[in-house]
Write a structure and sequence with these properties.
67% of the residues lie in helices and 0% in strands. With 112 residues, it is mainly α. The longest helix has 41 residues, at 3-43. The two termini are 31 Å apart.
Length: 112
């Protein structure tokens, strides 16, 4: 692979990871907001119906962020296919032991 293509691949990978992190951060923020709304209502001693529409809209926003996260995971997978097609090699920045492994297309195994 040319040096230029590798640089482009690294730029794309960094942007992908930043996008994934941004969605996760937004999802976390909205989840915290949704979680605090009922507590705030109780602390203010408002009736249960107060703020219900706002809570429902915030939950809808959280659902949409989750859909965006799912789409980004699919985009990541699609880019992995492009990477493999052009023999670019992984662009990961560290090993995530929690990431599920895919079925290898190469049946070779590492043995000790």
């Amino acid at each position: 692979m040319s040096k230029h293509r590798k640089e482009v691949a690294i730029t794309v990978a960094r942007s992908l990871y930043a996008s994934e992190d941004a969605i996760d951060s937004a999802l976390t923020q909205v989840a915290n907001f949704v979680a605090m709304m009922p507590t705030a209502r109780q602390d203010a001693k408002f009736a249960a119906c107060v703020g219900q529409d706002a809570l429902a809209q915030a939950i809808a926003a959280m659902t949409m962020l989750n859909q965006a996260r799912e789409a980004m995971v699919r985009a990541h997978d699609a880019l992995a296919e492009v990477r493999d097609q052009f023999h670019i090699g992984p662009m990961g920045y560290g090993v995530d032991p929690n990431k599920p492994l895919r079925e290898a297309s190469n049946p070779l195994q590492i043995v000790a």
